Amino acid sequence: MIKFSILMPRNPTMTHEQFVAYHRQQHAPLFMSIPAVKDNVRRYVQQHPVPLEGLDLPLVAVDGITELWFDDAQGIANVFTDPEYLRVELTDPPPPRRLGRCPAPPASGRAVDPLAAGPGAPSVARRAGAGTGSPEDGRAQDGRSAS
């Protein structure tokens, strides 16, 4: 599994709130309508920074993070060279949300759960009672992963 994270700045003519609304309500359905995306993207997660008061954390100058999961490098190539994807990417406002202008390091990864008792053990989030079923927490209503 390769995860492709895209750090997205907003168009300077938009507020952060306008960007988030656009990203969720307009861009996501458009992106997901592309056949190459349907065929190759295994999971699509949108993240948007939230303020955390009282923590001394460095701020990152991005308004959104898109995480795309692919089986392999060929899946990434299939999407980002697809003529329909390129047409949408070139015509979907608002710039400068162009992939070539956004840092996007591909990486493989694994879940680390130091409290798990072994295969089949519930995740830390489920043991702690997390998983509201909202799109933001990445869980389906029944507590399963929403992938």
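Second entry:
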Amino acid sequence: MSTQYTEPIKVTETTTLKIRSVLPSGKMSPVRNITVEKQALAPAKVVEKTTPGLKMKMADGTFFKASELNKATEWKEMTVKSLRDIRSQVESTESMRGVKQYGAIATGYVDIPEDGVYYFTTNNDEVWIDGKLLISNEGEVICDHLSPKQMLDKMRFLCKGKTEPIPELYRQFNKETRDGKNMAVFSKLLGDAISSIIEVKEESDIDSFLGGGQMSFLTNEIKGLDDFELICFLVVR
């Protein structure tokens, strides 16, 4: 048994916290590892003749991860007024079918008025500050389609005791997605999930082939988003 904490935990050095949540029923969640890193304050940079906005370059194509932007060869450069403009360069639909896909990188400066601790949030894939990756929304697949019971157990655990929608959360979701009109963030996560299904199927087919099982590489080929129909989704915050 660990020490019982009744007040906030103070961390003064780089360390890894291991956390489990316990329900009144005694059921425990999986262990979460949270790395807390002690860092020195980043040095300030004096910039002359700044102009409002962000420098942005965009490339047409489908990119499931920020790292895939390295394969882009043709870029269009522009200046945008705000972070929201990064995701609104093409008209989108609720289903996102037939919408022109693109990836973008925006750069600029952050005005930090004084030394201190600041918190950042974003719907974009990554945020880098002073050459360091601050936020990553890669959308890691933690439970694939071959483990439906495990997935349902996780969803039941997260929703246990919640019988009504949480207003502050769905209002925030509606604001971020413009009442469901801009679902690009979640379309990207759906794309990651589908990519995982394709990768897992290919690995399963190869394992079956090497193990002497009967299978065909030519039938039931899954190519991408158009081979699936989204029935429902659960947003976890």
